[in-house]
Amino acid sequence: MNKKYRIADYIIEIEAPFAWRSGERFADFEEENNREADFIVHWTLVDVIDDRPSEEYKIFENQPSQYYLTGSTLMKYERVNVGREPYFCLQTNLRAEEGTGPVQLLCRGIGTEINLESALGLFTHMELTMILNLKRAFIMHSACICKGNRAILFSGRSGAGKSTQAELWEKLQGWTIINGDRTGVRRIAGDWKAYGLPYAGTSGIYRNDSASIQAIVFLEQAKECRIRRLDVTEAFKRMLSETFVYSWIRELQERILQELITLAGDIPVYLLACTPDEQAVQCLKEKMKEDGTADECTVSTSRT
Questions:
Q1: Which of 103, 104, 126, 218 has its CA 20 to 30 A from that of 297?
Q2: Contact 202, 12 (CB under 8 A)
Q3: Is the Cβ–Cβ distance between 87 and 80 less than 8 Å?
């Protein structure tokens, strides 16, 4: 079975000798056009996986997963069941982005005992975070709202009010929530784009939409609203704390750190101490207008 998914405007093609269902999360991310794939994931089922490198090549272990690096080849071995080890192997070239053609990933699972019945199970083992990092894109812990071709990201610690602020902007300003918890971020010819993802925490909002990032807003709860624009250093630190990065893989870490530094210098980043009501919306609107970053677009968000 072959199927394509479009995530963060990358085409991820999966080839496998078995069938799977997309499910509610991934249904809107299926892609049926003939656009060339950016990633091709080759799945095979085998009887045994016995080629794990020696311990000297191990770079990280987070049970049940172990990561090895030999040259530029990254290998992840995962034990899904205590009865056999390992049950699964993912392999790719970290420097594949430097070449031409799609990035190739090899996935092997032992028999059918591994969870391969759904796109969610497949992408869990394939690790979407790593796939995006290979192309210098990343996932930020944030709620994303869009209006026209402009997006605002609300980020911060759990409980800071990301969903509340996103819902206020949807209700009071007519913006659309495309993801309530995680946003795909990538730079295309100098334009920073925000993407809905098939992962959204408990929000249940999985829209495959995108828009150019207008501002990133970090939230803190307060009894009255206060807002300030962060300098590049503080903006970088706060974004790093809310970004999914493979920090134990130097090549991937360096790519994303450089992207975050550039993002911090390109896009206005604010700290909004706020109440969970309309005052917070007005506070942010006034600050963005003052900074010349407000954009009153009225065109509906469309799928790219």
A1: 218
A2: no
A3: yes
Tell me: pLDDT of 293 over 90.
Answer: no
Is the Cβ–Cβ distance between 107 and 125 less than 8 Å?
yes
pLDDT averaged over every residue in the chain: 91
* Cβ burial, residue 290 (10 Å; 0-12/13-18/19+): exposed
pLDDT, position 299: 28
Say how far apart CA 257 and CA 244 lie, in whole Å.
11
Q: Has residue 99 got a pLDDT over 80?
A: no
- Whole-prediction pTM value? 0.92
% of the chain with per-residue pLDDT over 90: 75
Peptide bond into 86 cis (omega under 30): yes
What count of other Cβ atoms lies within 10 Å of the Cβ of residue 191? Answer: 11
DSSP code per residue over 34-102: -PPPSEEEEEEEES----PPPGGGEEEEETTEEEEEETTEEEEEE--STTSS--EEEEEETTGGGSSSP
- Cα–Cα distance, 195 to 3 (Å, whole number): 20
Mean pLDDT across 140-150 = 96
Q: Would you say residue 194 has pLDDT above 70?
A: yes
Angstrom distance (rounded) from CA 102 to CA 194: 22
What are 201-248's pLDDT values in tens digits?
888 899 999 999 999 999 999 999 999 999 999 999 999 999 999 888
C-alpha 103/C-alpha 97 separation (Å) is 7
Give the Cα separation of 184 and 208 in Å (integer): 10
Structure tokens at 276: 């969970």
What is the rounded distance in angstroms from the CA atom of residue 110 to the CA atom of residue 116? 11
